[in-house]
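Let's sit down with a protein and look at its sequence and fold side by side. We need material for that, and I hope you will provide a protein of your own picking. Once you have written the record down, we can walk along the chain together.

***
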Amino acid sequence: MTCFGGDAYDALFGMGASRQRADFTLNRRMAFALSAAVVVSASAGVLAQKKDDKKLSDAEKREVQSVVKIVDDVVAGQPAPDDFEVEWVREDFLKAEDQKAYVAFTVTIDTSKITGGNLSLFWRVTKTGTAAPVAHQDVSFAPVSAGSASLRVSRSFTVPAGTYDVVVAAKEPSPSGKTTTPPKASLLRRTLTVPDFWNGELSTSSVIVVQRIDSLPAPLPSDQQVDRPYAMGTMELVPGWDTRFPKKSELETFFLIYNPRTDDATKPNVTVEYTFYTSAGGGTKVFAKTRPVALNAQTLQRFDVAAGDQLQAGRIIPLASFPEGDYRLEIMITDKIANKSLTRDVNFTVTAP
């Protein structure tokens, strides 16, 4: 295994600004308290207030009741509607308050067969294989322009660790006036295993590949948070939805490190190493390994566990020196105080410029 440094490192990642970008690590303090409060809940009998604290209109209430009934009917044994394609894109897990995890998920919806208007989106989360009550359910509306081909929607929920069945139902607006044609609808099921971030063991959030990270003047109110689940405190992640990157672009990652041991000064001592593997002769070989990033008392002088600071890490890697092909990024996180390590993987492809 080769560790690039000095001239070899410069040759791979470039000099000057490019090298600074490659060495980038997120050390900004962040007021980041994810809890059930960031999710606007709505049940079949209790409708949430929407933006600007205005109650749902009668038409919106009817749409909500209609889309909830679709899920109830499927749970009762009726066939699931499948009038247009709904695909699961990704899910991301982060630590929340009250012994829970925050789950952000994204679906894409084929809107080419939908005439337009506000698409009703309802998601229900239940514990897998049990008769336990609904763990979470919520509803929102997503505007659809007539003639659009697809719609990407991200939403979230907060639950304790465990395995859950997630049902997402999407329904086009009911037509006005008398008609015998029912509105189009589709339903998607997904089973997720939500990790336990509260067991005291070294862990991380999902490693999120991002396009960029935006600063927000203030945390979003709950009615806006439901539509923007990657807004966290005073920062908002803009995820990258494609794992194919042209050589002229960059690979940027973001994640949080949970439950590191701390020293007497309540500082962690963690290193993060990034190793890139490429396919070769039917197997894989090390393409490059960046310098370890140290997260300790020297690099985190303003880090304060008592104030709720969370340990953040990430890399911005220029891809200009990467030959075209498939890669696996292995991220190794080592807690030197606890003498424990874990790895996370990101698969991606470098394409022509």
About this structure: The chain has a mean pLDDT of 83.
